[in-house]
Amino acid sequence: MKAYLKSVNQFKIAMIIILCFSVFINSYSMGWGLPSFNAWAADELIPSRVIDGIEKGFSNGWHFKYPPFHFYVLTILYSPILLLHNLKLVDVNSLPTYTILFYIGRFTSVIMGAGLVFVTYLCGRELYEERAAVFAASIAASLCPFVYYAKTMNLEVPYLFWVMVSMLFYIRILKHQKLADYLLFSATAAIAVGTKDQAYGLYILTPIFIIYQNYLYLKQNNQNARLKDAIMDEKVILAFVLGFTIFLTIHNIVFNLQGFIKHVNLITAGDAQIRPRFERNIFGYFSMFVQSFRHIRFAFGWPLYCLCMLGLFSGFLNKKKSYLLLCLLIPIVSYYLFYISVVFYNNVRYLLPSCLILALFGGQFIAELLNPAKQFFKAKAVLMTGIFVYTFAYAFSVNVLMENDSRYYVEKWMEQNISKNEVVLGAGDRKYLPRLENYKSEITRKPTLAVLAKTKPDYIIGTSGYDIRRFETNRPEYEFFDKLNRGELGYKLLFTYKSHPKWDLFNQEELGYRDIDQMYIYSNFDKINPEIRVFRKMRVDEWREMSCSSLNNI
Can you tell me the distance from the alpha carbon of 362 to that of 163, in angstroms, rounded to the nearest whole number? Predict the structure, then answer.
């Protein structure tokens, strides 16, 4: 009994350490790109979007490309600052106060990230013994995309938190078939979809499978039970009613039906719809499927990727022992078929639900591998320690690149060399460029010769996050970048800068490859520490020197 209590305490201590580790690694470099009104993370739910919804009461046609649940969460967290604003004690439109809102939103992601790790542990506890659950939580905490998104105001971590909570109750449904678990699964699934629409894909096949499992459960007690009885079971009916009620409430259907319709139109036919990245044929489906494994491998890093895939393979070999664990593949298959395959667009962050489920397989495999009763335990323990140390360093590369982002250096150079009266043109997306708010600047995502003629900038700032590789040769943007790089627009390349910290275990060539829409790794990681190019309008003597050089070459 003492040995059992000792092991339980050890696991509790281990989980406390893992959660502290998660908060530390996720909060590190939380101020990336701040202070700013936009910051540098692509697709962040920036404070101004939330404030806009608050001012409209999330009604009367209000809509955005994301559903409103996390808007409500941030509204509650922003309320003390907004109250002070209404009392005219602070101004949310000032950069210092606005930046505080940014930090509140980002720290919310940090806390939900730690919560997500803990829920992964709870799922493991329902599936197998505690030691394996601790390993699963460790794997989840070490996912490099998770480390990135758990410090930004993107919706990845918030929606995944609710997804994994729903998976916890999904497992409990399969184990116990209790009404409370049905209701909690339905409620948290509705919140997940109300946080980010793409979560719907997880819940197409899953309810069907739950109903089938309910049928098998009823059949055990009554051989005359029919599938119809399982469908019309009180648990199922109440769960569906509760789920749809919460979904409709989140979307404020009563007071904002028009806004909900506009939201649906925006994500299905408007600017927020996703443009397919693969051809819609058998080869396209195969290419996207292969790409998925490449993305998952990048998310884990090679060592943990191999262990988790071995865990998956082991689960199929021991179907009876791993039955509940294998049942978690139903939501993942559903998600791939009804979301990924529908939008035909693959991205590292889109595969995060799959990564979290694979972490549970990996946790079981590592626990079995490190069984003290088996041979070579000490050698395997040393090997696993090395793997987790490497994975920590791999994931921490996100923080190192953020901390040493090239734009910090370029901004210092600009402060010393560009006056406030000189005009700066940012050629690319605002979020991939240095912060230009303090300069006489204009930023355009469609840099063309016409824009250049109109702006007449003294400096042009470019970024590898948005450059000539994005455009086909017949596009005016391609012509702009091509002539700019050749020195044909009257601008001289002053310098190119990209920091190269020693602690960076990512394959930067793999991350940075782009050919129009073709990339090796589809992610936002190429936007961290981008290469910045600074051009200055040529002086008369530089023009003459270049012209003479061109004539001599002829």
Answer: 19
